[in-house]
Amino acid sequence: MSLLNLQDVEMADAFRADGKIYVVVAVVSIVVLGLIAYLFSIDRKVSKLEKEIKK
Amino acid sequence: MAAGLVLYTVIFGLIGEVPRQPILNETIRNVYFHVPMWFGMMALMISSLVYSIKYLRNGQVQDDVYAVEFANVAIVFGVLGFITGSLWGNYTWGDPLPKDPKIIAVEVGLLIYSAYFVLRGSFEDEQKKARLSAVYNIFAFASFMPLVWILPRLTDSLHPGNGGNPAFGKYDMDSNMRLVFYPAILAWILVGVWISSLRIRIKLLNNHLQDNL
Lengths: 55, 213
Prior knowledge:
The structure holds 2 protein chains of 2 kinds. By secondary structure, chain A is mainly alpha-helical. Chain A has helices at residues 2-6, 21-54.
């Protein structure tokens, strides 16, 4: 146990570093990505509508 | 206005002063992004409810379109709130989906609302579809609200404002945070209404087109 404590155990803990600011970054990205994906689906609907009007 | 408020939220949500707290650390800033998702969802669900009632009162197809699209965007906001919440919980509560009454209630609630769309898809007759789904929408709203607002307060919850505590005031927010938080709520609600209105306009145009064919 003491040996473990001596070494700096490297783990994938980037999300817990720097006051966990990266969690906030991830949360904001999810919101933005989600809304943009949703907007893309709406965009497709508009394109479909445009095609139908041209017909 | 919605875009401006969102921009304000993102900038000041990231650089503004926030109280320093253990465990939460900087993730307190998620309050500006995760919590307003739920507020947006609630606002859209209320709008959906209003239009469902309106439809039942006068039978205008237009009101049915409004109700559907508001509910649709409400679900998207709910899912986003859910995903962001589980990510946030993973790093602060140590578990992406702890057995928290509010989380379970919201899972059930989102399923109830998904069933609204399944129900709509299962009818051929337009009028019957609109009428029954409007009734179901009222039922869904009436069961969703007590699930997320009242039930978690009867037991212990990890969420602030639950487990017997009144909501605001206990929110560990200082006046600096409120200055961002309230515009953030308004911003995301407006974005939700905006997206819904786009969908409504598309749907109405589509209906118009079908009628003229």
